[in-house]
Amino acid sequence: MRLADEAATLALGVRIAAVVRPGDVIALFGDLGAGKTTLSRGLLSALGLEGEAPSPTFAIVQPYVPPETRIPVAHIDLYRLDDAAEAEELGLDDLLEDHVLLIEWPERLGDALWPDALRLTLIRTDDGARCLTAAVPKAWEDRWPLT
Which BP terms in the Gene Ontology apply to this protein (predicted)? Predict the structure, then answer.
């Protein structure tokens, strides 16, 4: 899927928000500046978050719960983790019980990334657009592709 600009990336987040539910994991892969946080902001905004969601790079886990958002979401940025074992201390399994996990830099989890995660990869193109590829697990088959 081609995302021509920032508005298209935000719009994709809005479309994902329409089908997301607690217990979902959305894994966002891509280099710095690829659009992971922009997509996350579109999703969070569509779920009711007012104002711009900060990147959780320093907090690592930024939870949003009703009434701030329609459903609980944990926006997670694993960029600063040096080892997958560090993620165990974050309590992500506990959050998954009733939150959507929106994870930037999921490759830092190593083999611990949930197999039913929707895996989205964003790559910048020479013209400033983004190319998105999706690895869609069974848990998402009835919701993807988005309409």
Answer: tRNA threonylcarbamoyladenosine modification
| Cα diameter, the chain | 41
pTM (global) more than 0.85: yes
Residue whose C-alpha is closest to residue 132's, from 122, 142, 145, 146: 122
73, 58 Cβ separation under 8 angstroms: no
- All domains of the chain, ordered by start, with CATH? 2-83+115-140 (3.40.50.300)
Spatial distance between the Cα atoms of 136 and 99, rounded to a whole number of angstroms: 19
- Here the tokens at position 44 are 């969070």
Q: For every one of its 147 residues, what pLDDT tens digit does the chain have, with 9 covering 90 and above?
A: 999 999 999 999 999 999 999 999 999 999 998 999 999 999 999 999 998 888 888 889 999 999 999 999 999 999 988 888 888 888 899 999 999 999 999 999 988 899 999 999 999 999 989 999 999 999 999 998 876
Strands (E), the chain: 2-3, 25-29, 61-64, 73-77, 100-104, 118-124, 130-135
